[in-house]
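Tokens as discussed.
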């Protein structure tokens, strides 16, 4: 018995169907990738905050978390500056402004006594937008300090009020994007949540900073 192969019409129809399926799946795939990038940035900042709090409790002394901007997204050096919109971050005991390239140290004579740094590797395409603000206000803030009990102090080593909220999203947002928010309470609680959730009983709800 002769085996019958696919006709040209059958091949064309199959390719059309595959094309339709791929075109339907592509938008959701792009949205998933974008939202994963938002979450990755948010989780990096959250881990920096948690590291600062953990080190403060472990050392029984004040340790700060700072958002900083750098000319190069992949390099942390002394050209850094404190910034409420910074994608990079530093955990240290003193202000790292202009000294992010310093080696880790615990000596008071060797500021900024850096614990750890993280340079953003964001590059190409649409960039992420980070906005940090003070408690119950839209005033910008670039850092927060934890004491030996893990609670936040009223000021950072620069004398400025601490950040209490950090919003993370794309600088040029799409309708399918899911922006995220980090809440830092005065008790030291660090919460990653979804500002689009309105029900206080729903998982991922963002409470007001307190």
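Sequence:
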């Amino acid at each position: 018995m002769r085996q019958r192969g696919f006709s040209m019409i059958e091949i064309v129809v199959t390719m059309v169907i595959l094309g339709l399926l791929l075109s339907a799946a592509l938008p959701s795939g792009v949205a998933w990738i974008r939202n994963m990038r938002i979450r990755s940035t948010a989780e990096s900042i959250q881990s920096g905050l948690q590291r600062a709090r953990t080190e403060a409790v472990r050392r029984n002394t004040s340790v700060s978390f700072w958002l900083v901007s750098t000319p190069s997204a992949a390099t942390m050096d002394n050209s850094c500056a404190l910034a409420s919109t910074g994608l990079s971050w530093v955990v240290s005991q003193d202000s790292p402004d202009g000294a992010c390239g310093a080696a880790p140290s615990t000596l008071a004579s060797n500021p900024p006594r850096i614990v750890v740094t993280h340079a953003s590797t964001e590059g190409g395409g649409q960039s992420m937008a980070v906005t940090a603000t003070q408690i119950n206000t839209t005033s910008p803030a670039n850092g927060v300090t934890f004491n030996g009990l893990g609670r936040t102090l009223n000021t950072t080593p620069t004398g400025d009020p601490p950040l209490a909220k950090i919003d993370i999203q794309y600088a040029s947002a799409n309708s399918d994007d899911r922006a995220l928010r980090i809440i830092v309470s005065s008790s030291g609680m660090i919460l990653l949540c979804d500002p689009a959730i309105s029900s206080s009983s729903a998982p991922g709800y963002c409470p007001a900073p307190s």
